[in-house]
Task: structure prediction
Amino acid sequence: VLPKQFIPVAEQLGMFTAITDWVLDTALAHSKRWIVDGRQMPVAVNVSARSFQSPGLVNRIRQSLQRAGLEGEHLEIEITEGTLMADLEEGARILGNLKELGVSIAIDDFGSGYSSLSYLSRLPIDTLKIDQSFLDGMDSSPRDAAVVRSIIELGHNRNCKVVAEGVEDAAVHSLLQTLGCDRVQGFHISKPLPNEGFGEWLSHATH
Result:
């Protein structure tokens, strides 16, 4: 079941805070097991607008880290531009508190909804994730490739890592490497995997 199908229902039923807490606990528990196995593997967790704006989020993240026995550096929280821009002042406060825990901050679907970039210099952001829509056709369109290059340069100028989302073929992957994109994610690398399948994939991964 895709997130866009179950997330609205979970929010309507008032279940999303519990789901967010479960995802945090489960992801951090996996990270802890990987560390015990000798693999330093931080995890990233998407936080919805409603969860981000709910009271006590930072405290719940702190408690999840404590239950897993991990420091904040093992967790990255992903939020969208729209979530931040809904209340930039409050968003800045929450991000500041997360940074005090050592948690990394990623902006998901970057560039998909807002033209103002002034917030980048005001917030403690570590990662920009290029929305998949910017990758469509970039291997055949110099204009599309120039847009992606600009986002990568913007991120690097702000001392952010840049991740391309939804990379599905080798041509786009190669071009992103040429443009200096730090990381990619998508079906070209791997489809979503359960923990056991991920461990097997990781043991055979070459890059």
The beta strands are 43-46, 75-80, 104-110, 127-130, 161-164, 183-184. The chain has a mean pLDDT of 89. The two ends are 29 Å apart (CA to CA).
